[in-house]
Amino acid sequence: MDTTSLSLHGQRHGLAIEWADLLRDLDRLQEATIEKDGKRHPPHRRAGQVGRVFQSAGIALPANLHERAA
Length: 70
Description:
Layout: H1 3-12, H2 19-28, E1 34-36, E2 39-41, H3 49-56, E3 68-69
Antiparallel strand pairs: 1-2, 2-3
């Protein structure tokens, strides 16, 4: 999806996309796992503006709380 399409989706949902902030948030978005007592726990992550922009475009971020056996 290009920037024009994302802008249109954002406008329809009342978002003013700040591209520098969005790119910074995308750079910070990462997957990590914390292992404790034999179980793995992905930590909560703050998606910043990315979550709202993705939601407006119908793109889901992966779930951030899945507990799995190690």
